[in-house]
Amino acid sequence: MKNEPSPRRELVWYASYGSNLAYQKRFLCYIKGGTPAGSRKRNSGCRDIRPPLDIRPITLDFELFFAGHFKGWGGAAAFIRRGEVNAKVLGRMYLITDEQFNDVVLQENGRKVDGTRLVPQVEQLANGTEYLLPELKTYGHMLVVGNEGAHPVLTFTTAENNAPPIGPPSEPYVKIIAAGMKETYPSMEDGEIVEYLLRAEGVKGWIQPDQLANWVANSWGI
């Protein structure tokens, strides 16, 4: 999907890798407000509720893992970290304004969307590839992972010195990730999604393969 951007808007690509892979049933709840499928937490939405201007798949040179325990999902959440040379994370990126990205970061960290600016201005992003946002506990490590066209590609994860303990994601959380993967990568078979998730710490050794396969097979369709 693609719309024509306004020249007055500062645009960035937000690269998601967890539940935000699901566009309609999860990510739009951060933009427009609402409760994602399977979650018990309502998101307030961004100050600018216009939808993304473009949506594309992306592969990130990191490894996926699950950690912490979050009441909204009843289990661990997805994070990324640098791993082996051949580590890959399957993602989906959204072309949104830097203001919207800032508001998504606030919501991901349980903060109010009140105009507070925590994300560096776009013109500052050329000066580095990593930014620690000390005000944020859960997703306080922002990464500039490249550029697409004229716009930086941004994502966020937990800071290594503040990472929560490894743990398993809940059934609803796995289902929304699987639904988003099916939407983003329609040629992937359920078995490939299961194999991908089983490589992640927090799933491997925590969730039985047959149980995971059942969750993936019965994920919410988009």
> What class do helices, strands and sheet pairing give?
alpha+beta
- Number of separate helices: 5
Strand content: 15-25%
* Spatial strand order of the main sheet: 2-5-1-8-7-6
Protein described:
By secondary structure, the chain is an alpha+beta fold. It has one domain: Hypothetical upf0131 protein ytfp (Roll). It has five helices and eight strands; from the N terminus they run βαββββαβββααα. The protein has helices spanning 23-32, 98-108, 171-184, 190-198, 209-217, and strands spanning 11-16, 54-60, 63-70, 75-81, 89-97, 130-132, 141-148, 151-157. The strands form two sheets. The chain has a six-stranded mixed sheet. A two-stranded antiparallel ribbon has the order 3-4. It starts with 10 loop residues before the first strand and ends in a 5-residue tail after the last helix.
Keywords:
six-stranded mixed beta sheet, 25% strand, alpha+beta, two-stranded antiparallel sheet, 222 residues, Hypothetical upf0131 protein ytfp, 24% helix, 8 strands, globular, 5 helices
